[in-house]
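Lab notebook, bench 4. Still working through the backlog of constructs that have no structural model yet. Next entry is a single chain of 252 residues. Request: give me the C-alpha cells for it.
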Amino acid sequence: MFSVFHANLSSLSEHAADYVLTLPKCIKALSLNEIHKHDALQVADMFRRHGFKAYYNIPEGDTNTAGHGGEIVATRSHILSNPIQPNILDYISEHFGSTIWLSACTIQFKGAVVISASIYLWCSEGLSERNNIILLKLNMLVNILKLPLICFGDFNLIPQEFLDGGWCEQLQVKIIYPNSSTTISTAQDRPIDFGLISTSIEHMYKHTYPIYTVPFGPHFALISDFLARPRSVQGLVQCTPKALPMGDLIKL
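Model written out:
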C-alpha cells in the first residue's frame, strides 16, 4: 500500500514538524500546505534528516510576511521520485506572469510515472481569477509532461464547487473525497481539503480517511491509500506499430 498524508499546517511550527516528520513508516508521501518558510535549503535539509526527499515551493513575500504559497510534496528517501525540471516551472510562471503557486514532483510506480502535486487556493474567493490561474498552471504542467496526476490540496472550496467549475473535465480527473462532512474545526460542512486523481489511473486509488486529532489547526489531516504496485497507465491506444522482422532488426 502506498499511503499519502495531506494537511494544511497553517505554519511549520515545532509541534507540526515533530508530528509530520515522525509519521509511521507506512506513510510514503506527504502533501503539505502553508509551510511559510523562506529558506528552501533549510526546509529540504529538515525533511532529509528525517528520511524524506522534499520538493518545496517558497511562499511569496519576505520573512516578515505570510505570503501565498509554501506548498510541499515529499516522498520517503528510498522511493524513486524526481523534481520537475526548473525550466518547465519557469516557463509556466512566465506564461502566466506570476509565481508557480504549487509544488510537484514525479513518482515512479511499477509501470507508471505519476505527477504528485500539492496546491493551495486563495481563501474566500471560490473560483476567482487567481484560483483559476493556479488550476491552469497545474493543467499546463500535466499537458507538458503528459503524465497522470495525483494532487492534494486545500482548495478553499467544497468538491461540488470544483465540479461545477468544470475542472474535473479540464484536468481529466476524479475527486478524492475526504470522507468527512468537514476538514476544518471551525465549520461543520466545509470539506475543503481533498484530492484529485487522473481517470487513467483511478484504479490505483483505494481509500481516504480523515485524521481529526492533530497538533495544528484549524485543518484536519487526510490519509489516502493507493496500490503500491499499480498497473500500467490505462488509456486509449492511438497506434500500435507492427513488430519488426528479425532480419530487419539484425540489419539495424
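Notes after review: Residues 165 and 245 are 51 Å apart (CA to CA). The first strand starts at residue 2 and ends at 8. Flag for follow-up if needed.
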